[in-house]
Amino acid sequence: MKKAFANDNILKVISVVVAIVIWLYIIIVLDPDVEVNVRDLPIQFIGEEQLNANGLSVVNESATTISLKVRGSRKKMGNNDMKTIIAKVDVSGIQTEGTASLPVEVVVPFENAGISSQNHYNVDVKVEKLVEKQLNLEVTTKGTLAANYMAGPIKTDPETITVKGPESVVGKIAKAGVILDYANADVDIDEEVPIILYGTDGKELPALDAILQRIQQDATSTKIHCTVVKLREVKVVPNFEPVVQADGTVSNQNFNCSVNPETVQIYGDDQLTAKITEIQTEPISVEKFLNNQKVKVKLKIPDGVKILRDISEVEVTLQQNTQQDEG
């Protein structure tokens, strides 16, 4: 009994070994063909430069991926990357606007493997007239500068961009802009920022938006320069003309008066504005106050200095009591 059982186990082992040998023979020696499923293979659209030269541009395609089966040697199929398979559609031959049905060409770069089946043989491609539009770059700012600093002119390089693509797609782009972050700066700002495109609804077009996939733009970023200047508050001082007396002597009048505004904020070359402590008015003739208690007088602004909010004149009010100092 034991001998029979032992013989039975030996037969089982022999059967397994024989099966493995046969399997190895089939796999290694005979190397039968196998099929591999390749799903969602991206379609490469070629020839768009020639299409653009014809004044046309692709709007959309009925499919951008295909699925197929590749048959070939198990060894070769196992030793090659299915991602190297290429599916392509040539659009260069399209001559007119409308929809064209084009064949998908599948290229398998490794030997002894063929395509047994695929679920897409043709792709419908819609094309439109190729147009372009020039857009000025609009600058939007966010954040604030450091205390007592203000922003000067903001310049971009380039100042405009050109977008090009299918007529219906380009028509959905309303404007282009950039965002400048002041970020508490106290020196001139120089940086490169991305260009943002906006739709006709005024909303930003995300990078993955289908519209952006269909257009070409000659610049995707711009260099931006913003001058940052320091503000200094200085006093406004009225400058009265000397009065010539009857005896020919000249008296300097010190009048009891008020000025509105009493101070102004100046900016410009920092080394220049740092030396200025006051801004005087143009000479004021006392005769102006004969019929009026208040007169408007222009400011005497030094060259190279600017006043915040472009204040160029102040209002001087003469009080009832005056004090005269002979000089």
From TrEMBL:
InterPro entries listed in its UniProt record: c-di-AMP_regulator, YbbR
Keyword Transit peptide: no
Keyword Membrane: yes
Pfam families for this protein: YbbR
Keywords tagged on the record: Membrane, Transmembrane, Transmembrane helix
PANTHER family per UniProt: CDAA REGULATORY PROTEIN CDAR
Protein name: YbbR-like domain-containing protein
Lineage: Bacteria, Bacillati, Bacillota, Clostridia, Eubacteriales
